[in-house]
């Protein structure tokens, strides 16, 4: 009888240990920002690359010919702010959304009302999420690096969040079933689980 209880306890410990092992690699409180850069992964038809984003990618690629992951992150965040500047998505304070502009853009981009609502609600959610991330230690470090290039982290935080949300909640038929998108989605799921159980 006692033996059996020990066995159960052992199995339980083993499970906890195994789970800890499978969820821990490169997951931390900023795993949604750091581990994979999803900003330029357009995996859902509803959230496609805008011409402004492509233009800014070219412009900033010249300014930051990145070699390290850190430089690439700086480049991505400046590209995001550049793009949000050009679409007038971001307010003059550089840390709020111009919702009228966002709505107009989505309405001209998407045919389906339900899609507009889904994406607009995602922007609302991601505005709040981005503001909540600004005080994070990792984000403050990022902000200092961005400042040297004249960029602010808010637009990139919003864009990253929208990209993540659209990868996780894309209507099934509109999701791009490529290896890269599948992998990114699996990673994001792990990251979200981690963030949920961490606190
Ligand atoms: C976006 O616009 C603000 C001011 O309107 C400017 O200070 C900032 O440098 C611009 N960001 C980029 C990445 O061009």
From TrEMBL:
Keyword Secreted among UniProt keywords: yes
Entry's transmembrane regions: none
Subcellular location: Secreted
Name of a matching Pfam family: OBP47_like
Cellular component terms per the entry's GO annotation: extracellular region
Gene3D superfamilies: 1.10.238.270
Keywords: Secreted, Signal
Classification via InterPro entries: OBP47-like_dom (IPR054577), Odorant-binding_protein (IPR052295)
Signal peptide limits: 1-18
Domain of life of the source: Eukaryota
Every OBP47-like domain range: 53-185
PANTHER family assigned: GH25962P-RELATED, ODORANT-BINDING PROTEIN 59A-RELATED
Family: Belongs to the PBP/GOBP family.
Protein name stated in the entry: Uncharacterized protein LOC108037719
Species: Drosophila rhopaloa (Fruit fly)
Gene name in the database record: LOC108037719
């Amino acid at each position: 009888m006692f033996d059996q209880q020990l066995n159960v306890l052992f199995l339980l410990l083993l499970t906890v240990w195994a789970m800890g092992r499978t969820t821990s690699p490169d997951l931390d409180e900023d795993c949604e920002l750091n581990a994979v850069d999803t900003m330029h992964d357009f995996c859902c038809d509803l959230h496609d690359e805008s011409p402004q984003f492509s233009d800014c990618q070219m412009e900033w690629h010249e300014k930051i010919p990145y070699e390290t992951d850190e430089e690439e992150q700086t480049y991505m965040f400046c590209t995001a702010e550049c793009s949000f500047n050009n679409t007038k998505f971001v307010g003059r304070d550089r840390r709020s959304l111009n919702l009228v502009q966002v709505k107009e853009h989505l309405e001209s981009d998407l045919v389906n009302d339900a899609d507009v609502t889904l994406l607009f609600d995602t922007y609302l959610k991601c505005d709040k999420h981005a503001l909540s991330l600004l005080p994070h230690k990792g984000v403050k470090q990022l902000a200092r690096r961005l400042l040297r290039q004249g960029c602010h982290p808010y637009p990139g935080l919003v864009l990253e969040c929208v990209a993540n949300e659209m990868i996780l909640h894309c209507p099934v038929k509109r999701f791009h079933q490529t290896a890269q998108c599948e992998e990114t989605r699996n990673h994001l799921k792990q990251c979200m689980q981690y963030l949920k159980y961490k606190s």
